[in-house]
Design a protein that fits this description.
Blueprint lengths: L2 E4 L12 E4 L6 E3 L6 E7 H8 L3 H12 L3 E7 L2 H4 L10 H14 L4 E3 L3 H20 L3 H12 L1
Parallel strand pairs: 1-2, 4-5, 5-6
Antiparallel strand pairs: 1-3
Length: 153
């Protein structure tokens, strides 16, 4: 597995496998050759608040792209309980921020995973991508993805 890291990712995770920097169509992390099938969007607490507030329109466009993939998720580097304490300069109400994430999770079929630490978020992101690869090798998931991407060509 070779994990792709978006070139716009400012603080990229480290993984126990090969990685390549690339401009991804959506999200921050994907798998080489499966960029149009799987992607993980990573957010720190400060970035999440900024994105939900001032960057909302751009982020919704990103979520619309993620929704089209076979699997996508949002990984937040923060416990949900800590998320209720907004960053110092944020004007966004924490309940509004969480409600937006919950609504988008339902609307765009994107699970949101709250990871207490950066290391946990990094490990969780790796495991999500690893599991996606394993599932491709088992059952009909690979056939479904190959068929869909072949039809797009």
């Amino acid at each position: 597995m070779n994990i792709l890291i978006d070139t716009r990712e400012q603080r990229p995770f480290s993984f126990p496998c090969p990685t390549t920097r690339a401009t991804l169509p959506a999200g921050d992390y994907s798998i080489l050759g499966l960029e149009n099938a799987v992607s993980i969007e990573r957010k720190s607490k400060a970035d999440a608040y900024s994105t939900i507030g001032n960057g909302r329109r751009r982020f919704v466009r990103e979520l619309e792209k993620l929704e089209l993939l076979d699997y996508a998720a949002i990984v937040i580097e923060c416990a949900m309980s800590d998320f209720l304490l907004p960053p110092v300069r944020s004007q966004l109400n924490p309940n509004s921020a969480i409600n937006s994430l919950i609504a988008w999770s339902v609307r765009y079929n994107l699970p949101v995973f709250w990871c207490d630490t950066r290391l946990l978020a990094q490990t969780f992101t790796y495991r999500l991508l690893e599991k996606f690869c394993k599932e491709l090798k088992v059952g009909g998931a690979l056939k479904t993805i190959k068929k869909r991407h072949t039809e797009q060509l």
